[in-house]
Write a structure and sequence with these properties.
Layout lengths: L1 H22 L7 H5 L13 E10 L3 E5 L4 H6 L5 H4 L4 E5 L11 E6 L1 E2 L7 E2 L2 E5 L2
Antiparallel strand pairs: 1-2, 1-4, 2-3, 4-7, 5-6
Length: 132
């Protein structure tokens, strides 16, 4: 019983001192420390995932974009795009209500990532319309 209590007290003291000493800055009251302080920041450029295709479905919240070689081929999958989804050639893209897109319009998408759903949904997309 005594050994267990001693270990508990020793652990508590060690953790308490470690946290107290670790949190206290070395120059807490020195003005000299702030005068010599320089910051070094690096901003890593976030990699964007490209996807180019034709709009085959539009609703108030999402575009469905098919990555096919022609506009006609893309529109032929308009009612049955699950075949393309299994080939990873379909992407759902969130849009704002004031954005206007038309069926068959070619778009280039850049996104920070995709969800793991079928079809995947673009995360933080940038949409560029491409003139055919």
């Amino acid at each position: 019983m005594f050994t267990k209590k001693l270990v508990t007290v020793a652990t508590t003291v060690a953790l308490g001192c470690g946290l107290t000493v670790g949190i206290t800055p070395a120059f807490a009251d020195s003005n000299e420390a702030s005068a010599n302080y320089t910051t070094h920041t690096t901003i890593k450029k976030q990699e964007q995932i490209p996807f180019t295709g034709y709009v085959i479905s539009v609703d108030g919240n999402y575009l469905v974009v098919a990555n096919t070689t022609t506009k006609e081929e893309a529109l032929s999958y308009q009612d049955d795009w699950w075949k393309l989804a299994s080939q990873n050639k379909i992407l759902r893209v969130p849009i704002y209500a004031e954005d206007h897109y038309q069926l068959g319009e070619k778009v280039n998408l850049l996104s920070a990532g995709w969800t793991f759903s079928i079809p995947p949904i673009a995360v933080m997309p940038t949409i560029e319309k491409i003139a055919d």
